[in-house]
Amino acid sequence: MENLKKLIPIALLALFSSCNNSDDGNYQEIATYPNVTATFGSKIDLNNLYNYANQTVPAYITKNNAVGSTITNAGATLGRVLFYDKNLSSNNTISCASCHLQSNAFGDTAVASIGVNGTTGRHSMRLINNRFGNEGKYFWNERAANLETQSTMPIKDHNEMGYSGANGDQSITDLITKLSAIGYYKELFKFVYGSEEITEARMQNALSQFVRSIQSFDSKYDIGRAQVANDATPFPNFTQQENNGKNIFLTPPVFDATGTRTSGGFGCAGCHAAPEFDIDPNSKNNGIIGTIAGGGIDITNTKAPSLRDLVKADGSLNGPLMHTGVITSLQTAIGHYGTINIAPGNTNLDPRLMPGGVGQKLNVTAPEVNAVIAFLKTLTGTAVYTDPKWSSPF
């Protein structure tokens, strides 16, 4: 009996460790995970997890649309596996990462991303810094109330990943049965949640943790912003052109009765406020109302990704812009806002783009455009493109 009493605390400690061996390293021992080790090798070490939970966020970044949601190292690790696993598609050819590539700031260079039964209806949105903003809804038309809901909607889409439960597709219940038979998921779900059970809610929880962890705050802009009191102050590390571009971006325009700018800047910050450069949740559509398919109009697209990492370090775009992918250069993007034409049927145009009820005319000049482009390029970071914690574990 005395020996049994001694063994009970040891057994309880082992049980506690198997359910909580995630983040802080204060547990006594960790179970072996042969399937995880065999599948991922050194890319995933459950004894030494990557830091997702306690990444440095600059003090001037204050917006957060994920209040109440927690990122853990263990949960984001499982999310990383799910994000890159082609087993989540009906024919094992497509993963979340197929349309959101790390090399392109988690966006796609294709106008329409390829799925298992066709292509996406809208251009795939970049995922950089998606939690650092006020807008809590997801997709271009904000049809997902939160990131958790959004995370499995592509999986349940007939064209994208094929587990729609309609059109001859299997359902997400069938996907869960499929994943439950995979050894590394047995181990990972138990590692994170304390049991091998896979549910859609657990998948959503893990995927959203990984996506929320993707952040970029090591840009030239961030180096400068850390040295000044506010964005209106010239940044000491910027060129004169970059500081001019910043001022033009931040300063609202002054219009006459015809909607023509007479002074001021471009007012980009009215919808994309610094320092997060996220989209204002009150924004309506930006005047681009076409569709990838080419027929009809779509005036419901009112969300946009952060303007951070629009381009790579070499200045090339991380894929085309807008929900139609119709914009293929920063110059063209600025030009679009330079002259807004109110298209017939567009009853949802943002009022900030039609002063006095007419489409704005910014009368942009080449030096102004070049300055704003120079400034937008300062928003590009470096680590997010190469950090292994956001890379494929396979």
UniProtKB/TrEMBL annotation:
- The organism's superkingdom is given as Bacteria
**Extent of the signal sequence:** 1-22
Q: Which GO terms describe its cellular component?
A: cell envelope
Which of UniProt's keywords are assigned here?
A: Heme, Iron, Metal-binding, Oxidoreductase, Peroxidase, Signal
Cytochrome c domain sequence ranges: 74-183, 240-380
Q: Name one GO molecular function term.
A: heme binding
Keyword field contains Oxidoreductase: yes
Q: Which InterPro entries match?
A: Cyt_c-like_dom, Cyt_c-like_dom_sf, Cytochrome_c_Peroxidase/MauG, Di-haem_cyt_c_peroxidsae
- Transmembrane ranges, per UniProt, are none
Q: Where in the cell is it found?
A: Cell envelope
Q: Is Magnesium among this UniProt entry's keywords? A: no
SUPFAM superfamilies given for it? Answer: Cytochrome c
Designated name of the protein: Cytochrome c peroxidase
Q: Tell me the organism.
A: Flavobacterium croceum DSM 17960
- High-level lineage: Bacteria, Pseudomonadati, Bacteroidota, Flavobacteriia, Flavobacteriales
